[in-house]
Amino acid sequence: MQTSPISERENIFQNLPVPSALRKMIVPAVTSQLIVLIYNMADTFFVGKTNNPYMVAGASLILPVFNITLCLAGLAGIGGGSLISRLLGQSREDEARRVSAFSLYLGLLIAALFAAGIGIFMEPVLQLLGAGDNTYQYARQYVTCVIVIGGIPTVLSNVLSNLIRSIGRSKEASAGIILGGLLNIAADC
C-alpha cells in the first residue's frame, strides 16, 4: 500500500531520528546551492572564453550584488518557510497558506525594488564596486541582465524553493533550483 505524501512528510518530522531527518532535508538543499555556485562559475567560464580579461572582471564585480539578491530571497523564503513549518506543526494550514502567499509577494516586491534601485543607481553602484574605465561597460551589461532583468526570477525561484522545502519537500525544491540552474548554464552555451 502506498503512503500519502502527507504521511511521508510527517514521517520525516515525527518518526525519523534527527540525523536521518537532517540528511533527507539537507542533501537536496546543499545540492541545489552547489548548482547555483556552478551556474556562477559557468558564467565566468563562458565569459572567460572571450579571452577578454575586462569582461571577466566586469562579471566578477557583480558577484556581491548577486549575493545580495540571494540574501533577499532568503529573507522572504527562509523566514516565511520557518513560520510555515511551525504553523503546519500546529495544524494551522490556512494560516500557513496565507504566510506562503505573503512570502511570495514579499519576495516579488523586494526583488522588484532592488532591481529598480540597481537600475536607477547603476553608475554609483558600479563605481562603488570598483568598475573602472576598462570594466564599466561590461559590468553594466552583466548587471543589467543578471540583476535588473533576472533579479525577480532569481528571487522568486529561491523563495519558492525555500517555501517548498519548509513543507518537507526538499527533493522537489532542489529539483526546481537544479533544473533552473541547468537551463541557465545551457543558455550560456
UniProtKB/TrEMBL annotation:
It is a multi-pass membrane protein. Keywords: Cell membrane, Membrane, Transmembrane, Transmembrane helix. Pfam families: MatE. InterPro entries: MATE_fam, MATE_MepA_subfamily. It is found in: Cell membrane. It comes from the Bacteria. The chain crosses the membrane at residues 21-42, 54-78, 99-121, 141-161. This is MATE family efflux transporter. The lineage of its organism: Bacteria, Bacillati, Bacillota, Clostridia, Eubacteriales.
